[in-house]
Write a structure and sequence with these properties.
CATH class of the largest domain: Alpha Beta
Largest sheet: 6 strands, parallel
Distance between the termini: 21 Å
CATH topology of the largest domain: Rossmann fold
Strand order of the largest sheet: 5-4-1-6-7-8
Shape: globular
CATH architecture of the largest domain: 3-Layer(aba) Sandwich
Structural class: alpha/beta
Number of strands: 8
Number of helices: 10
Length: about 230
């Protein structure tokens, strides 16, 4: 997609909503998501003795949490508690996304409101931002609702809550994310979306999901934010 599409998106929907894992940092760089999922699976087996066969193939901790909720609310509660602890541990070794500080600073300098909207637990997001000194560049954090995994993206719930916290309408917001589920969540509530194609093959997936623009470098986005005033 063109620079014109990026500029048009930022001009139309100026409030920035930023996914956490991917656009801000690699949450599971030092504590792999697959390892966490295996640990959650072991905990779940201890709780219920047997799991649906499909749960044995899941490698994403968030997908495993959603599957646990289909087994029982009690199992989901145990998995949620363990996942919160794992994510807080994971951000201790998370690595920053190249250019993210430049982008956050550009948003501040351009006077743009910015919130993080994440399927991760809020405590892990806050812990990471504090550790790397970026907390002052973020106005709001809207993170996973521990009471109901179904409210994670691609549900638009977190976008709606973030927009309410910033006192704007969802269509004034642009969500930047690296997953098709981010784009789907934005489209479901009328927000714009910019896909962050940080790995091979992601650009086509994000385009197919309906992203309004696609970038591969956060510094590219920082420059666009400063250009579109």
């Amino acid at each position: 997609m063109t620079a014109e599409a990026l500029a048009a998106t930022l001009r139309r929907s100026p409030v920035i909503l930023l996914d956490f894992d991917g656009p801000v940092c690699s949450v599971f760089a030092g504590y792999p998501a697959s390892q966490i999922t295996d640990e959650l699976r072991g905990l779940a087996l201890d709780q219920v003795g047997e799991l649906p066969p499909a749960m044995s193939a899941i490698t994403s901790p968030h997908e495993f949490l959603s599957a646990a909720a289909e087994v029982s609310p009690e199992l989901a509660r145990h998995v949620e508690e363990a996942l919160q602890a794992a994510e807080i541990k994971a951000v201790e070794s998370a690595t920053p996304t190249p250019g993210v500080e430049t982008f956050l600073t550009a948003c501040r300098d351009a006077g743009r409101q910015l919130a993080i909207v994440s399927n991760n637990t809020g405590a892990s997001v806050r812990a990471y931002l504090d550790r790397v000194g970026l907390a002052g560049l973020v106005q709001h954090i809207e993170a996973r609702d521990a009471s109901d995994p179904a409210l994670m993206k691609p549900s638009p719930h977190l976008i709606e809550r973030a927009a309410q916290a910033l006192a704007v309408e969802p269509d004034a917001c642009t969500l930047i994310g690296d997953q098709a589920t981010d784009v789907q969540a934005a489209r479901a509530i009328g927000a714009a979306s910019i896909g962050y194609a940080n790995k091979p093959g992601k650009a086509s997936d994000l385009a197919a999901a309906g992203a309004d623009a696609i970038i591969s470098d956060m510094t590219e986005l920082a420059a666009a934010v400063l250009d579109v005033r």
